[in-house]
Amino acid sequence: MAGYFFASPIDIDVKLEGEDVRKIVETKGDKEKTISCPVYYDGDSVSGQVSIRTRDGKKVQHDGIKVEFAGSIELFYDRGHHHEFLSLSQELAAPGEMRQAQTYDFSFKNVEKQYESYQGINVKLRYFVRVTISRRMSDVVKERDIWVHSFRMPPDSNNSIKMEVGIEDCLHIEFEYNKSKYHLKDVIVGKIYFLLVRIKIKHMELSIIRRETTGAPPNQYNESETITKFEIMDGAPVRGETIPIRLFLGGFDLTPTFRDVNKKFSTRYYLNLVLIDEENRRYFKQQEITVFRIPEN
User: Fold this and answer.
1) CATH number at residue 49
2) Tens digits of pLDDT across the chain (297 residues)
3) For residue 155, is it within any domain?
4) Do 25 and 112 fall into the same domain?
5) Of 156, 266, 281, 290, which one's alpha carbon is 20 to 30 angstroms from that of 130?
6) Is residue 136 part of a domain?
């Protein structure tokens, strides 16, 4: 019987206006449950309806009902500590008692959402609607997540990347990528030139690495994950040989590059070229690229 007293006597449902026609992003909620979040953009209004009903038709006393729209950053090593960078609030009902189901409209007009939603290894940036029914014993709270995408065009200049890898008198290669900034559905086009090859290379691969940095020193955490890795060459190259590269980004689960979001985290991408010789020595060269989101048609 004990558990019965802690069961909430109230059910809350949050319906977002137009959610059926918005793009949906699946994300992990608590306890690894998958939740579906409608996608919003900076400046979009967030509006909808809150439906509240009491269980078994019992009357319920409350000290007021409010709805909030919030944006917060959760750092996983700092659990229970949420940094709210956005908090808007509207009162739905003054203190009183509820006997039957009630529906309330809410609208947060043209909300500035300055950051993009992000779920990483050590950090989560989320936006959500939160309904709170204040009660003397304990509040009844319901949250509903949305997902925010931002279009942040990088500066106009988009230089090609030229790099050299050299080991004195043994190896000299140059590689070139067509640009340094790519949108999420872009193609990386490049070439590798072998100018001098005196070591026995047996394998060469290109990978995209995502590096997430959270927190600030001394509590700074770096996590790197390899998003994709593909073989460029198998077997020994010869001097004067050129190897073309084409890597389509659309098939990977990339986010834009995030730099120092709210002084809490960064997410950066690197192209990593690795050469492995016959003695399994690895030579590599890393180059940062910028990834950005453009409006989809």
Assistant:
1) 2.60.40.640
2) 344 445 677 899 999 999 999 999 998 877 778 999 999 999 999 999 999 998 887 888 999 999 999 999 999 877 767 899 999 999 999 999 988 899 999 999 999 999 999 999 999 999 999 999 999 888 999 999 999 999 877 667 788 888 887 777 777 888 899 999 999 999 999 998 888 777 788 888 889 999 999 987 788 899 999 999 988 876 667 777 888 889 999 999 999 999 999 999 999 999 998 888 888 888 888 899 999 998 876
3) no
4) yes
5) 266
6) yes
Q: Using H for helix, E for strand and C for coil, what is the string for the chain?
A: CHHHHHCCCEEEEEEECCHHHCCEEEEECHHHCEEEEEEEECCCCEEEEEEEEEHHHCCEEECCEEEEEEEEEEEHHHCCCEEEEEEEEEEEECCEEECCCEEEEEEECCCCCCCCCEECCCEEEEEEEEEEECCCCCCEEEEEEEEEECCCCCCCCCCCEEEEEEECCCEEEEEEECCCEEECCCEEEEEEEEEEECCCEEEEEEEEEEEEEECCCCCCEEEEEEEEEEEEEECCCCCCCEEEEEEEHHHCCCCCCEEEECCCEEEEEEEEEEEEECCCCEEEEEEEEEEECCCCC
State whether 228 and 288 are in the same domain.
Answer: yes
Instruction: Let me know whether 183 and 281 are in one domain.
Output: yes
Q: Tell me, yes or no, whether 297 lies in a domain.
A: no
Same-domain check for residues 136 and 29: yes
Tell me, yes or no, whether 188 lies in a domain.
Answer: yes
- Are residues 188 and 131 part of one domain? no
